[in-house]
Structure formats: structure tokens, C-alpha cells
Design goal:
- This protein has helices at residues 11-65, 71-83, 115-121, 162-212, 227-275, 282-314, 325-343, 361-378, 423-427, 436-446, and strands spanning 86-91, 96-99, 126-132, 136-147, 150-160, 321-324, 346-349, 356-359, 384-392, 395-402, 450-456, 460-468.
- By secondary structure, the protein is an alpha+beta fold.
- The strands form 3 sheets. The chain has a 5-stranded antiparallel sheet, sandwiched between helices. The protein has a 5-stranded mixed sheet with strand order 7-9-10-12-11. Strands 6-8 form a two-stranded antiparallel sheet.
- It is rod-shaped.
- It starts with 10 loop residues before the first helix and ends with a strand.
- Bound molecules: adenosine-5'-diphosphate (ADP) and magnesium ion.
């Protein structure tokens, strides 16, 4: 390959040059082969015809040869005129007896040194092509004259065959003309074809450039269904995906900033009166400090959630270990007992068969913790939250069931989105930033599992986590 930037650089140019080269080679080969074939067959035909003439004249001459009949003179003259050739009749020694051209100086000339004449005098036919100066290419055909089985002379037929090549020149001219016309047509077609191939490439190139420069809304349109069309489709899917990712990244940053601002503003509002000395009563001061600690807790939790999400997104392969599901549920219940007590909610782990799965124990616990945390938060006092696990055909199913208000239909498609909270929970001062379910789903999907919710207004909510057990 060498220098890949050598001329011509453009795809279209390269296509055209190779196309043109192939075409000219093919045409030249065809023309040369055709001309060669025509030349050979034309010459061969003339040679055979001339040999036949020599044979015919020799055949009729045989019986008159020794008698020296003048009849031979008429034969040579008339036959020569008839077929447009010079006919010479030679005696046994190869000397000229009759010449259809009546060149008297030829009479008696010994032609036996000529190769074809020698062969004929020896009883065999022969033909030869020579170039006569001033006349051109000339064919000689000789045939033996036989009388009662004995060679008595020879017939030499001579014809100038230059006309073969003048005719071939005409044919060559026609072939070249037709080839040139065909070449021009093919070039035009090739130009269009190259354009139809390179135009989509150009369109794609512009699209890639635009995306590279940051225009993620850029799509390309290639109407064909071929490889280039498929490439365009893939490109469009890619830029659409990039655009979505970029949008959600922006939204995420904006949401995170917003969520950080709220507790920070509260902190400022709590710290300022303390600093300015507006709050002097020690019990009131202690209340302010408790509120400050609560806000710091909220911030810490938010920071932890954000960190967890970014870790989950980094998509590090899960560190799996055998995890006992019932034990995990009990652990979650124990950790959330203080919250449950504070809310007056009972958390119960329903008995289930022990089942081991391979999972990242800490992460899975985090996911279930988020579900149970919600269930406790949204349950009215006096109600019960039930956790249980069951084996299914291909894995383990963990269910978190509460008897809270349920999730409104319009919230259902969004609750797993980051920062999504229903109107009701947004107005609440307590509660998370809307990251709990997003984290939970990320973890479950990281385990190859599924998470979904079943809910009915006033009937409570059921979150189901399905973790597969590889066979
Ligand atoms: N058990 C539940 N009962 C009623 N609504 C729930 C329950 N779990 C989640 N939701 C709804 O889903 C939303 C998102 O939950 P989550 O991601 O944990 O965020 P957060 O708990 O911070 O509000 C909640 O705001 C709430 O509207
Ligand atoms: Mg939550």
C-alpha cells in the first residue's frame, strides 16, 4: 500500500480511477483479441481458397501437360481472371510454361528454388505468405500436376492479400469508435455510481463532525437500505443515545445541586441566629443545634446516595458471595427498627425456607433497605410492613408489602427515576431526595434481576425484587 495519502485521495477519485483502468484494460483486451482472431481467420480462409484454386487447375491440367496442349494457356488465363489471381503452370523442372499475366520474360524462368514450388514438384501441396517490396503481402499456393500417377509439373497461384489488412484497419476503426462511445457511457454511469456511493459517506462524515463538535441533536438521512443506510441508522441511534445521556447528565447535576441547596439554606438559617446571639436561652440553643445535626444528617445521606449512584454507574463487576436471603431480611428489619418505632409501624419478617443466592450482600441489603425504609415512611401508624422471600422456578423473589396509601397511577412510571418524588412526599420535610428507588433498581439490575411494584390506592404497596439463580 505504501503512502495511503497518494493521489487520488477521495473515495470517488479512487473508485473512478480503478473503474476506468479496469474498463480500458477489458476493452483493449477484447479489441486486440477480436482483431487478432479476424486476421488469422481471414488469412487462413484466403490460404485455403488459394490452395483449392491451385488444386483445381492442377487437376484439369494433368492430362494436357505432356502433350503441351495450348489448352493450358486458356486454363491459366481464364481461371486466373475468374478468381482474381495470377496462375502459373510449371513443367517438371519448375520452369514457367504458362502465365496468366502474359509476362513473356517469365516464360521459361526456373521457379524450382521457391520452397512451395519444390514441395509441389515433390508431389505435395504447399502455401506461403511473403512480403513483396512495392506490392505488399502476397500468398503463394502450389499444387502438383500428376498424369497417371506420375508428377509432371506444378501449378502456382499467386494473390496479393494486402486487402485483408486494409479491411481489418476499417474494422479496427469501427471497434475503436464503438469502444470510445462505450467508454464514455460507462464513465458517465460510473461517475453517477461513484457519486451515489460517496454522497452518503459525505453525509455521514458531516454528521459525525457535527456530533464531534457537540451538536448531539444531529441526525443523518440516507434513504437506501444497504450497508450505508444501516450505518446511518446506527449513527442516528448512537447520537440519539448520546443526546439522552447528555440530557440526563445535565438534569442529574441540576437536581443534585438543587437537593444540596435546600439543607444548606436551612443550615444557614439555623446557624445565623446562634452566631448573632439572638438565641440566648440554652434549651432553645440546644433545639437549634439538634436541628442543625438533623440537616447535616440529611446532607450526609444525600452525599452517600450520590456516591453510591456514581459507583453503581461505574459498573464495577459485583463482588458476589453466598447470601442467605432470610438473614438479610432480618438484618434490614433490625437496622430500621428505630425508624419503625418512631413511626409506630410494625415490621415483620414472614417465615420462609432458607435460600442461598450469590450476590453482593452489602449492595443487595442496601436495595432492600431502601424499599423497607419507604414502606415504613409511607405507612400510617399502627400498620404493619411484611417482608418475605420465596423460591421461584429460576431464582428468589423478595417482597416488601405495606398497607400505606399506595402509589398514584400518574407517579408509577416515574418512581424509579432519580430525584423523583411524588407531590405528597415532596411536601414532607422528612424523607429522601428521591434516589432510594433509583439506587435499588440499579443494584437489582446489576445482579441481573428485576424490580417492579404492584399497588392499589388505599390497599397498600408491594415491591417485588426478583434475583435469578444461575442454573
Ligand atoms: N411504599 C411506598 N408507598 C407509597 N409510595 C411510595 C412507596 N415507595 C416509594 N413511593 C413513591 O416513590 C417515590 C420515590 O421513592 P424513593 O426513590 O425512595 O424516594 P424518596 O423515598 O426519597 O421519596 C416516593 O417519593 C413515593 O412517592
Ligand atoms: Mg426512599
Amino acid at each position: 500500500m505504501g503512502d495511503r495519502r497518494s493521489w487520488p485521495v477521495s473515495l470517488r477519485g479512487r473508485l473512478m480511477v480503478s473503474y476506468l483502468g479496469l474498463l480500458i484494460m477489458a476493452l483493449a483486451t477484447v479489441v486486440l483479441l477480436a482483431l487478432g482472431y479476424l486476421e488469422r481467420t481471414a488469412l487462413e480462409q484466403r490460404r485455403e481458397t488459394l490452395r483449392a484454386h491451385a488444386r483445381v487447375v492442377a487437376g484439369v491440367s494433368g492430362q494436357y501437360m505432356l502433350k503441351g496442349h495450348d489448352y493450358l494457356e486458356y486454363i491459366s488465363r481464364d481461371y486466373g481472371q475468374l478468381v482474381g489471381a495470377r496462375v502459373l503452370i510449371l513443367d517438371r523442372g519448375g520452369r514457367v510454361l504458362y502465365d496468366s499475366f502474359y509476362e513473356t520474360e517469365m516464360l521459361g524462368v526456373d521457379l524450382s528454388p521457391r520452397q512451395e514450388v519444390t514441395t509441389a514438384l515433390n508431389g505435395k501441396e504447399a502455401a506461403r505468405l511473403t512480403r513483396l517490396p512495392g506490392v505488399g503481402r502476397t500468398l503463394y499456393a502450389a499444387a502438383p500436376v500428376v498424369d497417371r500417377g506420375r508428377p509432371v509439373g506444378a501449378v502456382l497461384v499467386v494473390q496479393v492479400v494486402e486487402s485483408i489488412w486494409s479491411e481489418l484497419a476499417a474494422v479496427r476503426q469501427v471497434l475503436l469508435l464503438v469502444s470510445a462511445a462505450g467508454l464514455a457511457l460507462a464513465l458517465a454511469a460510473g461517475w453517477l455510481l461513484a457519486a451515489s456511493l460517496t454522497r452518503p459517506v459525505q453525509v455521514l462524515h458531516e454528521g459525525v463532525r457535527a456530533v464531534e463538535e457537540g451538536d448531539l441533536s444531529r441526525r443523518v438521512e440516507i434513504p437506501t437500505r444497504d450497508e450505508l443506510g444501516q450505518l446511518a441508522e446506527a449513527f442516528n441511534a448512537m447520537s440519539a443515545r448520546l443526546e439522552r445521556v447528555e440530557q440526563s447528565r445535565r438534569a442529574f447535576v441540576a437536581n443534585a445541586a438543587h437537593e444540596l441547596r435546600t439543607p444548606l439554606a436551612s443550615l444557614k438559617a439555623l446557624v445565623e441566629p446562634l452566631l448573632s446571639g439572638a438565641v440566648t436561652d440554652p434549651t432553645e440553643q440546644a433545639e437549634f443545634l439538634r436541628d442543625i445535626a438533623k440537616e447535616v444528617d440529611r446532607l450526609t445521606e444525600l452525599a452517600g446516595d450520590l456516591l453510591t449512584l456514581s459507583e453503581l454507574e461505574a459498573g464495577r463487576p459485583a463482588q458476589t458471595e453466598p447470601v442467605d436471603v432470610s438473614g438479610l431480611l432480618e438484618q434490614v428489619r433490625d437496622r430500621l427498627l428505630p425508624l419503625a418505632r418512631a413511626n409506630g409501624v410494625e415490621v415483620r419478617v414472614a417465615p420462609s425456607l432458607p435460600s442461598l443466592i450469590r450476590a453482593d450482600g452489602l449492595k443487595l441489603e442496601r436495595a432492600i433497605y431502601n424499599l423497607v425504609h419507604n414502606a415504613i415512611t409511607f405507612s400510617p401508624p399502627g400498620e404493619e410492613v411484611v417482608l418475605h422471600a420465596e423460591r421461584t422456578a429460576d431464582g428468589v423473589r423478595i417482597v416488601v408489602q405495606d398497607r400505606g396509601p399506595g402509589i398514584p397511577q400518574e407517579d408509577l412510571p416515574h418512581i424509579f427515576e432519580r430525584f423523583y418524588r411524588s407531590e405528597r412526599s415532596r411536601s414532607r420535610t422528612s424523607g429522601g431526595a428521591g434516589l432510594g428507588l433509583a439506587i435499588g433498581r440499579e443494584i437489582v439490575q446489576g445482579h441481573g434481576g428485576k424490580i417492579w411494584v404492584e399497588t392499589e390506592a388505599g390497599e397498600g404497596t408491594r415491591f417485588v425484587v426478583q434475583i435469578p439463580i444461575p442454573a
